[in-house]
Amino acid sequence: MSENTLPAPFSLVRLDSVGSTNDEARRLALSGAAADLLVVTARSQSAGRGRRGRVWVSPPGNLHCSTLIRIHNLATAAQLGFVAAVALVDAFRALVPGIPFTCKWPNDVLAEGRKCAGMLLEPEGTDWLILGIGVDVAQAPPPGELVYPACALADLGFDGTDADVLAAYCAAFFPLVECWRRLGFAPIREAWVKRARGIGDPVVVRLEGETISGVFAGLDDEGALLLDQGPQGHRRILAGDVYFPAV
Ligand code: BTN
Q1: For atom 14 of ligand 1, which residue has the closest CA?
Q2: What Rg value do the Cα atoms of the chain yield, rounded?
Q3: pLDDT digits over 25-49, tens only?
Q4: Which tens digits make up the pLDDT trace of 83-130?
Q5: Domain residue spans in the chain?
Q6: Which of 28, 120, 121 to mutate to test the pocket of ligand 1 (most atoms within 8 A of CB)?
Q7: Taking CB atoms and a 6 Å cutoff, what residues make up the pocket around ligand 1?
Q8: For residue 206, is pLDDT > 70?
Q9: Which terminus of the chain, N or C, has less C-beta within 10 A?
């Protein structure tokens, strides 16, 4: 561990190599050491995990961090993924000007259409959300291991460090999480939609045991993806992988 290098109200625990920063954050919460906006980072992860049980390749140079966020309603906690996605897009746009960074439903960030960051949200009890974020800063994973095309910020000309990305992300995240706490999801939804990839475009959505297609019609007021299936009407999607077919 090293000293705090994030501005209040964040606090920082920096580790060298861990299994998963989400597990470290959970361990801190269970040991009574949780604090709102406590960020755990690790130089590398030996068991980094992504959504839907996937492996998250976590070499040194990339950002692996998990933030403990105090919540009061587990039912709305997943909205924090949209808060973080907006913050990441704004941070990346400031760090790497001129690159079209966008939000991809539900919790990814794309650079020129390729994934450069993902999130894994896990509750701990009813009081804490663990918001795990992985950013490919220095290197993207090898193509063979991927379900989406990926790229690293370094591939786009960024020559800073994972610590620079964390600082920019935290600076963008704090006002947004305060906004969400005061005003709820509506302003976050609006900000996310403005930065979203593919609204109005055809998409394929892979669900557990089913693949469906339609037009990405938007986000509802709880964060579900609205899929326009023409004569079959709109379908609300709560979890799935979205693909944009090549046109
Ligand atoms: C995804 O896109 O599938 C989510 C990736 C989340 C990766 C981050 S890295 C920090 C935290 N620790 C983990 O084990 N996973 C998340």
Answers
A1: 48
A2: 17
A3: 999 999 999 999 999 999 999 999 9
A4: 999 999 999 999 999 999 999 999 999 999 999 999 999 999 999 999
A5: 11-194, 202-243
A6: 120
A7: 20-22, 45, 48-51, 54, 56, 64-66, 108, 118-120, 132-134
A8: yes
A9: C
pLDDT of the residue at 3: 42
Q: How far is the C-alpha of 225 from the C-alpha of 239, rounded, in Å?
A: 9
CATH class of segment(s) 11-194: alpha beta
User: Are 58 and 141 spatial neighbours (Cβ–Cβ below 8 Å)?
Assistant: no
Ligand 1 centroid from CA 234, angstroms:
30
Amino acid identity of residue 54, one-letter, is R
Ligand 1 center–CA 20 separation, angstroms: 8
Task: Give, using CA atoms, the residue closest to atom 3 of ligand 1.
Answer: 50
Q: How far is CA 73 from CA 76, 78, 80, 84, 218, in A?
A: 6, 10, 12, 18, 24
